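Shipment paperwork, digital attachment
Item: protein structure file
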Amino acid sequence: MQRNMKYRVLLVFVFLFQSLLFWGQVDSSASKLLDSLKVEDQKWRNLSSKVYKNEIDTISIQVVMKRVRETDSLNYLLIKPLFDKFGYLGSDKVGIQSSHIFWLLVQHADFQPDFQESVLMKMRIEVDKGNAPIKDYAYLYDRVKVNNRQLQLYGTQMTLDSLIMSYKPKPVFDPDKLNERRKQVGLSPIEDYIRIMNENFLKTK
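Attachment content:
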């Protein structure tokens, strides 16, 4: 773990140094950094899903989730300097794929709600410019609301109801019009979303 941390911190300094050489611009090194962070992010989350579904029993879910939290904390330390320097990394700056990765890493920075909210405000501007998808904005909007203990708008943030063994949305504003709002941002009906969540994350044994 210590070796991994040192390596990733080294990546930060290398990237920031390169950024100084290209002041005010985002070059390919940003995309490469984001790609490497996504690999680590998804590695532990994919493993957590397999452990929870009893597909793997050689490691506990507690250990995996600890790694998830550590990875999210480290990734935050890497993406915040990017945001501070370049603003929201929309598709015009790093391309569609890397922009989506940036959004994903912000989405997982749950221990930094103020940072998430700052990114959300900048993202709204880029959505209007066509540099970020409205669907991704909806997910981050809900994440910010939930992390601030407020009602979400699009029902993207879920919780497991252990009594009925099904996922359900965390508290939502005006639930009767939920599907109407979801449709406006390109999201599927909440019933389909719940079904997919159950298929992907409920235990199989």
